[in-house]
Amino acid sequence: MKFTKIRRHGSALALMAVAAATAASAETDLLFGTYVSDTTQLNIAGFNPYVKTLQDSGEFNVTSLTDGAVVTARTTLPGLADGVVDLTYIPAVYYPAELPVTNVFVNLGATMSNVPAAIGAIIEVSKLDCPQCEAEGEKMNFVDLGSWSLTPYRLLCAKPVKTAQDVNGLRIRAAGHTIAIVNAMNATPTNVPSSEVYEVVQRGQVDCVFAPIAWLDEYALGELVQNVTMVSAGTIPSAAAFAFRRDKWNELTTAQRQVLLDAAPMAVAGALFGTQGSDISALERPGVEFNVTEASADLQAIIDTAIETQVVSAVQTAKDAGVKDAQALVDRYLATYERWQALVEGVDTPEAYAQLLRDEVYSKIKVE
Asked: What is the pLDDT of residues 311-322, one digit of tens each?
């Protein structure tokens, strides 16, 4: 009898072990991999809390490899397509040929001076009113869970700049859509990577840098330039920034997909507000007093005209890349962007912005 009791007790322990193993195996393994550094707000306030939410849900076991440990900016998209990573940040600007529809939004960056409104509009159009966007995700093996953006580009200058006359003939570091704006200002654009921007300013090879204010801190430009001109010149957005591997998504349960979707608004909001906070903290650099001034009407008028030209250019670029009804897609975005500018008024916390995203977009997305 004693032997039987021991056997029964052992059987009970074995059953408990099997049950525990079964519960553990119910968690789906995921790999979050990105070239983005953990020192950036995109990870600190966006992806890292998102990963924690997935982990805490009990549905996923997530491993994180950042700082280029598994994919670079140039290998992110193929890495996602090939199953190297399951969750990642797609820098769409590096993939104009592979992601022509997604890059329609990127190429409209000059219009996006209100970044929260722009990101809300991009997510709404791409998720609710853009079959081509969905088809592109299917083709390239990703599910778009949300977008992100740098803050608006300003002029960071060695000397005070306010008027069109002040910028005439200056050498200005520019990239993307700001190159055309610099040309329109009758200044000379210098296109160097962000990693070299400190050096060219230090050597006096440029007079100003077209960049987010956060660069005063992130690239130590605050050591060299103390004049900030608040031009309205848009930004460089990352549509489909939060991307999940589609063939992996297809294997998930409806409940698991819902977890991924439900956590996305707060991840988008955290990344966005965290990045905006970097602008504020950069201007509070200890021991430095920055001269922040608004651009004059004549300088802003030149920029506005250049922006209008770039909208036309974005449409033509999309048509040349094979995007169907490119003008209609651009018009939908611009109309939605205008609506979102009203929606985000008074929305000044990530929690409130996340709720707005849920109400306007995410609650309308089906995961079945």
From this structure: 999 999 999 999
* Out of 8-12, 120-124, 191-195, 290-294, least confident range: 8-12
Who contacts 162 (Cβ-Cβ below 8 Å, separation ≥6)? 229, 293, 294, 295, 296, 299
Work out whether strand 291-294 and strand 188-190 pair parallel, antiparallel, or are unpaired: unpaired
Structure tokens at 365: 């997305």
Please write the tens of the pLDDT for every residue from 77-96.
Answer: 999 999 999 999 999 988 99
Query: Which residues does residue 229 pair with via DSSP β-bridges, in sequence order?
Result: 155, 293
Residue 309 amino acid letter = T
CB 41 within 8 A of CB 115: no
**pTM: predicted TM-score of the whole model, two decimal places:** 0.84
Instruction: Match 């430009």 to its residue by tokens.
Output: 221
Shortest CA distance to 264 belongs to which of 338, 350, 340, 337? 350
Q: Which region holds residue 57: left if phi is over 0, alpha if psi is between -120 and 50, else beta?
A: alpha
Q: Which of 197, 185, 187, 196 is nearest to 295 (CA)?
A: 185
> For the purposes of burial, counting CB atoms within 10 Å of the CB of 346, is it exposed (0-12), middle (13-18) or buried (19 or more)?
exposed
- Give me the residue label for tokens 């200005």: 172
Q: Give Cβ neighbours of residue 178 (< 8 Å, ≥ 6 apart).
A: 153, 189, 210, 233
